Structure formats: structure tokens, C-alpha cells
Amino acid sequence: MSAQPEYAPTPPPAPGAAAQLLARIRADRRADAWVPAFERDWGKALEDSRASYSLTPLHDVVRTWQIRLDTAPAVDAFIDSGMDDSGFVALEDVLGPRP
Known about the structure:
The chain starts with 16 loop residues before the first helix and ends with a helix. The protein contains 4 helices and no strands. It has about 100 residues and is mainly alpha-helical. The relative contact order is 0.10.
């Protein structure tokens, strides 16, 4: 039996990944809403990193926004397809109101 983990750890983003990501966000049609949101997330991650002496919060922000940008075309295609998604049950109806 091996003491190796069952999964391979995710490598950290490249040093310039945040700047490249911000350029991608600025080029997107949602830039007016997404640039301030990214800058807010990045600022909070910077504060968390300074307090914890860890780069993990910064890496998490980069990964989250990369996924968001990579999946945006699929979301747009679903919305543009006119598929009716109104037949689903609202989460609030299942879980009840949030406290």
C-alpha cells in the first residue's frame, strides 16, 4: 500500500495569472460588473494573505475567476437557447428562509 494521496494537488497559478485574468475580465462583455467584483475579491484575498502569510487565498481567487470566465460561454449558450428552466423548485422552498 502506498502513502501517496489519491489526488494530485493543483499546481499554483503562474505569477502573472492575476494580471492576465484581469485583462480577460476587462475584455469580457460583463466587464462593468465583473471588474469591480474581481478587484473586491482580490483585495480581500490580499488582506487574508497578509494576515495568514499564505498565498492560498490569492490562488483561490485566481482559480475561481478562471472557472467563471471559462464557463461563461456555456452559461450564455444555455440562456440564449431559450430552454425553460422555470420548472425547477426554488432552493428557498426546499430549505426554508435563511436566518
